[in-house]
From TrEMBL:
Molecular function, one GO term: transferase activity
A Pfam family of this chain: Mal_decarbox_Al
NCBIfam families: mdcA
Protein name, per record: Malonate decarboxylase subunit alpha
Classification via InterPro entries: MadA, NagB/RpiA_transferase-like
SUPFAM superfamilies: NagB/RpiA/CoA transferase-like (SSF100950)
Top-level taxon of origin: Bacteria
Length: 554
């Protein structure tokens, strides 16, 4: 006898959960703040896959705090799938036994604690993903059963306005709701009419007006006052040796003082090199305040943003020719679309790392600090699916020896993937190491593979105070490793460099010192910065930039 198959078990389960929560959900899907813990207990089951919107910046922090208040005897062993875990509350639930397994992309301020919990067995690590990789899995095998998101405002029907920091909200809400999951939103305010609708009400099951506005981290703000002469030197080397060499227009700048230095010397040193209109015209990055001088000087045509940046709201609104803004005038950031642009539409990624090994593999996941990768592996790779052509992409590909021979004499370009770093980092920890800490982390976490951020075969250039290593020009692995040693300075890797071999590399333009590039070390100082303080950035913006309080010293 044939047994009839049910095809609505997820929907039926969701109905049961929402029926259990019905007593707490009022008109307009509104839930009183004091009922939030009871709401979560009604809709979440032990072992569920749960997403708490933890972005680079905006956080569903009230909902995270409420989830930590449930009894671990009632709700436990949750599988957390979220792009970022930057709040203490995100990890508190692992300490309490509410959560057990974690799949994520970026650890940020909790990097040390994540590493500690992995060592102690408090976190069962699924994987450290890229953003796009994790978003893709939301729609396949890591779909959240319940998602806790955040927005600036909701109207009285439950529509959401995500505003300046949309970030991950659309991808989380869509993946969850269209797989019959439950979406709960915390908002700063419930209003009669929204500036625009970013998430429709029928994607949302409950709305909580938080007792206080959600937390936003100004993650991409760098104070020009902290840019050092060494940062300026690295910036000059990058501009002269790579930007000018390849005329790269479509770029992502990662987080860090190297890229901030580059942004701040575009209107000065970059102008001397005649690069205006030749580089940095189309960019994928958050609205970095250190981009203000270059934008004001007319360097930039387009910027698409992963998220917003606290204090840049009015500046972005006033520069709608540059940024993607909605009919209401505010920025519409979107991490999934920006990462897609970063993966396929860019010609160059430049960022930093905590460690680089002698083959050029790099990682921000060390034995004692698991910062995660964010979007770096998507932007810091050569996307094999790319089919459109730009000159800088072709030039980089032409310089790779024997590339065409590998695929039947078929020509192909290559993305520039640049790692820029001082040879010794924070606490005088060497950046260049013989073996990445990622190997030990893999052992601690029981991973099949060491968590590498960018694989060595994708890295085309390394910039240090020693010079620029053009790894894409190396004829073989031996020459490639020698170029890395030449860039590695007085680290354990750099001390193995052979001066005669380095000399041959310089003659072949595979490694070039500042002197080879015509970069005057004596000019590498803060005098080249177009803005030397946060106050300078405010003044250059015409008063539109409003730095967070912790960055104000006037």
């Amino acid at each position: 006898m044939k047994t009839e198959q049910r095809w609505d078990t997820l929907a039926a389960d969701t109905r049961q959960r929402l029926e259990a929560a019905a007593a707490y959900i009022g008109a307009g899907k509104r839930v009183k703040a004091e009922d939030t813990v009871a709401l979560l207990k009604a809709v979440i089951r032990s072992g569920d896959r749960v997403n708490i919107e933890g972005n680079n910046q905006k956080q569903a922090d009230f909902l995270a705090d409420c989830l930590n208040q449930v009894d671990p005897a009632e709700i436990h062993d949750l599988h957390m799938v979220q792009s970022c875990v930057p709040l203490a509350s995100h990890l508190d639930m692992f300490e309490r036994g509410i959560a057990k397994k974690l799949d994520f992309a970026f650890g940020g301020p909790q990097a040390g604690r994540v590493a500690k919990f992995i060592r102690e067995g408090k976190i069962q690590l699924g994987a450290i993903h890229t953003y796009l990789e994790l978003f893709g899995r939301y729609f396949l095998d890591l779909t959240p059963r319940v998602s806790l998101i955040c927005a600036y405002e909701a109207d009285r029907e439950g529509n959401l306005y995500t505003g300046f920091n949309t970030e991950d909200t659309p991808v989380i809400a869509e993946a969850t709701k269209f797989r019959q999951g439950i979406v709960i939103a915390q908002v700063n305010k419930i209003v009669d009419k929204l500036p625009r609708v970013d998430i429709p009400a029928d994607w949302v099951d409950a709305v909580v007006e938080s007792p206080k506005p959600f937390f936003i981290e100004p993650l991409f703000t760098r104070d020009p006052g902290l840019v050092t002469d060494n940062h300026v030197l690295l910036g000059m080397l990058a501009l002269k040796g790579i930007y000018a060499e390849y005329k790269v227009k479509r770029i992502n700048h990662g987080i860090g003082f190297l890229t901030s230095a580059i942004e701040l010397i575009l209107p000065t040193y970059g102008a001397e090199l005649g690069l205006k209109g030749e580089v940095c015209t189309h960019m994928v990055l958050n609205p970095h305040p250190t981009m203000i001088p270059a934008i004001e000087a007319g360097w930039v045509d387009t910027i698409h943003c992963f998220g917003g940046e606290l204090g840049m709201e009015e500046y972005v609104k006033a520069r709608s020719d540059i940024f993607f803004t909605g009919p209401d005038g505010s920025l519409r950031s979107n991490r999934a679309f920006a990462q897609t642009a970063g993966h396929y539409a860019l010609d160059m990624f430049i960022g930093g790392t905590l460690q680089i090994d002698e083959w050029g593999n790099s990682s921000t996941a060390t034995a004692n600090r698991v910062s995660g990768f964010g979007g770096a592996p998507n932007m810091g790779c050569d996307p094999k699916g790319r089919r459109h052509v730009t000159e800088s992409w072709l030039k980089c590909g032409r310089e790779v020896p024997h590339m065409a021979d590998q695929i039947g004499n078929m020509p192909r370009g290559k993305r520039l993937v640049v790692q820029g770093a001082e040879t010794f980092g924070e606490g005088r920890a060497p950046t260049f190491v013989e073996k990445l800490d990622a190997w030990q982390l893999a052992e601690n976490a029981g991973l099949d593979l060491p968590p590498v951020m960018i694989y060595g075969d994708d890295v085309t250039h390394i910039v240090t105070e020693e010079g620029v290593a053009y790894l894409n020009r190396a004829p073989d692995m031996a020459a490639r490793m020698a170029a890395i040693r030449a860039a590695a300075g007085y680290t354990e890797v750099g001390l193995k460099a052979d001066p005669a071999e380095t000399k041959r590399l310089r003659e072949a333009r595979i490694f070039m010192t500042p002197e080879d590039l015509g970069v005057d070390r004596n000019r590498a100082n803060r005098d080249l910065l177009a803005a030397r303080s946060m106050r300078d950035l405010v003044d250059i913006s015409g008063g539109l930039y409003n730095p967070p309080a912790r960055f104000r010293n006037w």
